[in-house]
Amino acid sequence: MKTLYIDPIGGAAGDMLCAALFDLGLDITAWKNTLLSLGLTNYTITVSTCVRNVFSAKHLCIAPIQVIQAENNSDRIPSEPWGHHHRGYSTIVNMIEQSQIPQSAKDNAIAVFRILGEAEAKVHGCALEEVHFHEVGAVDSILDIVGFCLGIEMLGIKNLYSSPPPLSSGQTTGAHGVIPLPAPATLRILQGRKTRQGYPGHEQTTPTGAAILAALTKEAPFPSGTIGAIGYGAGTRNPKAYSNIVRVTCMETESSKGDIYELRTQVDDMIGEALPLLFERCLEHGAIDIFAQSIVMKKGRMGYLITVLVRNEYREQIEDVIFQNTTTLGIRRSRVDRTELSRRRVPINTPWGIVHMKEGRKQDRLLQASVEYEDAARVARNTDLSLQEIYDHTRKLWRQQ
After folding, report:
1. What pLDDT sits at residue 78?
2. pLDDT in the model for residue 247
3. Which of 88, 173, 364, 368 is the most exposed, having the fewest neighbouring CB atoms within 10 Å of its CB?
4. What's the pLDDT score for residue 202?
5. Rounded CA gap, 275 and 284, in Å?
6. Per residue in 21-39, is it b (16+ CB within 10 Å) or e — as a string?
7. For 64-68, 183-187, 371-375, 395-399, which range has the lowest pLDDT when averaged over its residues?
8. Strands annotated E in 177-259
9. Is 212 exposed, middle or buried (0-12, 13-18, 19+ CB in 10 A)?
10. Which of 276, 287, 183, 232 minimizes the C-alpha distance to 47?
């Protein structure tokens, strides 16, 4: 299985991650031509080779074409800068969905923007549909995010892992004026993930870079496998204190699709209120599924049988979570096989914004379809509608689509 390992040596940003893919051998011309279907205009793309500290790397520059308006051959006015372009979450999702890029790249790009949007909504205290992106709604940031998702699709990447990114202290300047470092959105996006200390006053990991890592990668040490191409992507700055690059390594690893473990434990001295937090933390650390059953234990006391499904690469992490959040003294594990349908998240335009449907297919045959609960619950909280009404209307629109 083709795997990409991301090492944000000097940081992580959308342009750096895209540039690293070009250093791996991504076809720049085909990449550019596919991105044209987004319908974005007034930009140029330049990929060059540069040096950051002692490392040779690729640098991606997406710049506006400066349009000059002339009225009666006088009053030459420069075009509005990209930073002034505000686009809402739904606008960006629609733009991606209407493009001609592969569906998996669309799904990944929408997932990145959703994480960005949810972080901005938390920071500003508003609903996701009310968020208007500033820098990340500009042409260059949209091309960075969609371009990275398209690039890993074109390269045939199936798995993505990353090491912890660096976060700095101090201040920087953005669309909202002077903001602290790490940027509030970056901090929110990386909540629950490991990070490492960066250099003061430098935004080494941007919200865009953080969202790509959070949406598409799993935290992991360098994986076992056969090393293939290696790429370096450069940031725009060239500080003396550190190498402003991200390194990506393309590898062939063994498929872990069937490498599933079932972890089981039972407890009779734990309060039931502890179960929801246990479920939440297991899912955050990579569990595929988790459930609990009421049982009668050997001394006649009522207890819980807790079962977790997890891939082998996250098994030890999940075992630690179970020991830390239950009263158990031991966990049984057994390797299991399972048959999976291929899955796809389909965004549906509803009167309340985007609500996703989950489709399950075997080859080309649709076997399962259901409304994404979290999307429907978000709409229900913001309206007077019941969950069932949202489900029914979304399914109707999905059938029409």
Report:
1. 44
2. 98
3. 364
4. 87
5. 14
6. bbbbebebeebeebbeebe
7. 64-68
8. 177-181, 196-197, 218-219, 226-234, 245-252
9. buried
10. 232
Distance CA 306, CA 322 (A): 9
Beta-bridge mates of residue 360: 343, 368
Give CA–CA dist 251/243, Å, rounded: 23
| Rounded Cα–Cα distance for residues 22 and 18 (Å) | 7
Closest CA to 177 of 83, 114, 86: 83
CA dihedral 214, 218, 221, 227 (to 10 degrees): -110
Q: Which residue has the higher pLDDT, 154 or 83?
A: 154
Q: Which residues contact 229 (CB under 8 A, 6 or more apart)?
A: 24, 25, 249, 250
Cα gap 283→346, rounded to integer Å: 22
Mean pLDDT value of segment 325-349: 87
What is the distance between the alpha carbons of residues 283 and 165, in angstroms, rounded to a whole number? 22
In whole angstroms, give the CA distance from residue 20 to residue 58: 6
User: Which residues are bridge partners to 369 per DSSP?
Assistant: 359
Neighbours of 85 (CB within 10 A): 17
pLDDT of residue 136: 53
For the stretch 266-315, pLDDT in tens is 999 998 899 999 999 999 888 999 999 999 998 889 999 999 999 888 89
**Beta carbons within 8 Å of 33's beta carbon, 6+ residues apart:** none
- 260-336: CATH class: alpha beta
- Tell me the domain boundaries of the chain: 2-252, 260-336, 342-400
Angle at 113 between CA 309 and CA 43, to 5 degrees: 145
